[in-house]
Amino acid sequence: MEGPLAHLLPQAFHFTGIEATQFILLLGIILFIGSLGGWLFQKLKIPQVVGYIVMGIIIGSSGFHVLEPNVIAALDPISTAALSLIGFLIGGELKINVIKKYGKQFISILLFEAITPAFVVGGIVTLVVWLFTKDITHAVSLGLILGAICSATAPAATTDVLAEYRTRGPLTTTVFGIVAMDDAVALILYTIASTIVTPLIGGNAMGFWPQLLNIFRDIFGSLIIGAVFGFLLNLISRHLLNNEGRILTFALGCLFLSTGVCEAFNFDNILAAMSLGFVMVNFAPPKTRTVFSLVDKFTPPVYVLFFVLVGAKLNIWIITPFLGLIAILYVLGRTVGKSIGSMFGAWLTKAPKTVQKYLPYCLLSQAGVAIGLSIAAGSDFADSIGPEILLIITATTFVVQLLGPVCVKIGVTKAGECGLNVTIDDIKKNARVTDVTWGKNKICDYDSPSIVSEYETLFTLLNSFSRNQNLNYVVKNPSTNMLVGIISLEHLKEVMQIGDFAESMLAMDIMDKPVVTCKPSTTLPDAYKLFEEYDVDAIPIVDTDGEPLGILEKSTVDHYLHTRIIELNRKLEELDD
């Protein structure tokens, strides 16, 4: 590839050894197998992300080698794009009012959940390695570097579980805030650790101040790049309020431009994407914030590709017994450290009880930053502890990437936050007629007062309307039990204007022929389509034989949906206490 921009493109795109046809075939295999794994694991009540990773392990370096290392490297841009999308959606959760409310809580929990495991892992690893090797320098060096790396928490698997289970509440908000800032703390801790270790065992690491300067350059440079593209997208989207397709296109364009610039200048693309999302959610017009739901709809296939590749990269057969022991201690120490640190930080700031109890479940995943730091350690200390650190982090990533999402599900489920992040459209999409009419807000049943005989007198009908809440009645033939008509209160009022003659009329004289019917299993979106298509406000409910079961009124469905939203908001208020 020639031209002035050729040097900015990933090396894998210059030569990958993959023909275009093979590339498309591989994408198809990854998407199909990954989606199959996600579906199967969902059926087993396990987060779908675990299924993606397991399928990646099966076809990758630890399994059948369908995806070889050079192929996985060639597909790295997919992982970069996925992490950018994740960063953008996390940024969309960081509203200024949320930061004002939870800011001190975030910082307290962040510091303790990051620093505590660093001390725990560092101490345990140092002690065990010294007991086995009697080399205190080697033991301290390995303990310091692994302690620093263990502080990082992977946002990808965690946020995927939160999205899958539609969580909302103080625990979810706290998790988004923590994983958004966690990487910066891990980078600073690694800088401190590598600065101490370098004079002990030698290495290629720079001095403390140059490293720290590079980290701040990386952090603030990334945030500035993201903010610039965020304000650009903000300006563009103001003129595209009614064109969702174009908003999505510009949003992805700005997001990937931001990512590309970060890649070219070695900045952090996740932080940049998060900054872009932060600008959009806080400074863009409210109508343009639909960009987050649009991007969210675009992400599922990208996430499948990303997590399958995460699994494919893991090689679980390269660990030795000694390093296996260190890896186990690393996972246990990290888990204990993050649990103690997050619980103490939450208690210190008087966070809600659900945050104090269940936040530790949500901070166990480890991936991108930890692997990146292990690679840096492999380079900085190539002749000493570098190779050991690479193997340990690879092995532990395999374990926590499988267990982490399951623990996140347990945490948010115990906290009672699953299924709270829904809109009226979400409730409507997942509800049926039977949920409205035979649910806990019982409106009708098989002996419903909304069903009358065609021989009922006008007086009986008026008396029934006065005693019951429904505005429409279905009429049945008492001999056959079949639906024969429908009567509305408005129609009844018109009949009353006839005079004394009306008193002798029966239901069969007043009723209209029903133009449409529905069944208890009819979905609410389909019911709304029937209301609109036939221009009616009430639809008879019938069984498979055509016998009437009740009446579905549009006002009743609207009331049901709004009641559900009020219930969810009330539950959220209770969780904040």
State the main characteristics:
577 residues; mainly alpha; elongated
Structural notes for this entry:
The protein is built from 25 helices and five strands. It has helices at 11-14, 20-43, 48-59, 69-74, 76-91, 96-133, 136-149, 155-164, 170-201, 208-237, 244-264, 269-283, 290-298, 300-313, 321-348, 353-358, 368-380, 386-414, 424-430, 433-437, 458-467, 489-496, 507-510, 524-533, 554-576; strands at residues 451-453, 472-476, 483-488, 538-542, 548-553. The strands form two sheets. It has a three-stranded mixed β-sheet with strand order 1-2-3. Helix 2 packs across helix 3, helix 8 (155-164) packs antiparallel against helix 9 (170-201) and helix 8 (155-164) packs parallel to helix 18. The longest helix has 38 residues, at 96-133. It starts with 10 loop residues before the first helix and ends with a helix.
Summarize it:
This protein is mainly α and 577 residues long.
The share of residues in extended strands comes to under 5%
The average pLDDT is 82
The low-confidence runs, each spanning 5 or more residues with pLDDT under 50, are 1-16, 439-447
Q: Which range best describes the helical content: under 10%, 10-25%, 25-40%, 40-55%, 55-70% or over 70%?
A: 55-70%
Distance between the termini: 59 Å
The chain-level structural class is: mainly alpha
Radius of gyration: 30 Å
Helix tally equals: 25
Order of helices and strands: HHHHHHHHHHHHHHHHHHHHEHEEHHHEEH
> Strand order within the widest sheet?
1-2-3
The tally of beta strands, per DSSP, is: 5
Described by strand count, sense and barrel closure, the largest sheet is: 3 strands, mixed
Q: Per the principal axes of the C-alpha atoms, what is the gross shape? A: elongated
